[in-house]
């Protein structure tokens, strides 16, 4: 059988070991890594007690590491925003739109390396590659403390983006490996919510460094101390990631051999498997032709034009409301709390009631209200504008929902890594555009940028509703196929590395 030959099902309502197409049997190498464990064996049943016990173990070992790393992932991006009001601009002599370009260059690096990194996530051991990238980005971040001009800062920002490119797609793949689809929304919401914790933590750290430097007159600039602290912390956590996160269930040293098999069996209903190293051209082509994929990528760019602007300019926005630069470091922290509460609530409620997409619109609605307050309130209403900024941090809720749907609603490992790569490429494009909307000539209120954010969020709402409708339609079509008298179920279909479109057993999560 050709390496990228598709597997399809047909016939009567009986079970067969593999489907046959043009008289050729699927090779084992075409299937998921887990098939070698389950092929020819009796069905492994996971009772509820074992399921809960193993889930608790996974939550205690893997989830905390994902949370801390993702928090650092956000903190490392926002250090530039904190540094911008801690003397960075003056010390490295930034002029004109230099700061905007430093903000965008991170995403140029991210964009340049995103496609290679998703291919490496498929072909290399996923946890080892991700851990190496974490350590390298920590080292790069710490090196920012030695830059002395725009050119040096630009180089560091570019490579920082390149090394961080593995984190979000890698975590989406790890989540799909270890968790059932009914669990993925809440877990993605939890680890992504650590963006908010990072903003709280980073604000207090930056404030403490700024005040401490002012009181004790350290010879080292406060923004340099900030980069050194966050960089070294990231390196330490990267080492812990390598120690505790395995490449898949079969390599988990903190599970017994029997529990490793049960950890695999508990996710078989996902109809996705745990990974396949072979690049399959037909799955790549299918991803490019799938309307759902392009709806995902549209959201990636539309939602991150606001994100790119707000993430890099929130400290300067707060100063524009009438607060001091030092106070702006502290006043940004409640926004992180808003993000934490909204993401955890939307993730939990969406999974509990199987309405992940619709519930995420609550967060988007709150963010839209915040943007309206920013643009409509007069300059004198600084408390109202500050509250408006806080509310915008509810905006990532649908982004997280779609990220979890890449875990839940995209099957076929080549297709999944392709979609993750495309989503993050458009995420980069949005984040490159975002800072450019905050033009120096529009300071301090940046009204055109705020209006741009409002328009983008409105388009995002329409896109979310389309994705919800489209997945419903696809589920109806699959249900009709399964109900047909001629339908032939395929034994071990969940381990055959089929795509979501070619597997009639696959059900899209809403």
TrEMBL record:
Gene3D superfamilies: MFS general substrate transporter like domains. GO terms for molecular function: transmembrane transporter activity. It is a multi-pass membrane protein. It is found in: Membrane. Signal peptide: none annotated. The keyword Protein biosynthesis does not apply. Keywords: Membrane, Transmembrane, Transmembrane helix, Transport. InterPro entries: MFS (IPR011701), MFS_dom (IPR020846), MFS_trans_sf (IPR036259). Residues 62-475 form the Major facilitator superfamily (MFS) profile domain. One of its GO terms (cellular component) is membrane. The chain crosses the membrane at residues 58-75, 126-146, 158-178, 190-211, 223-245, 329-350, 357-381, 387-406, 418-434, 446-471. Belongs to the major facilitator superfamily. Allantoate permease family. This is Major facilitator superfamily (MFS) profile domain-containing protein. It comes from Exophiala bonariae.
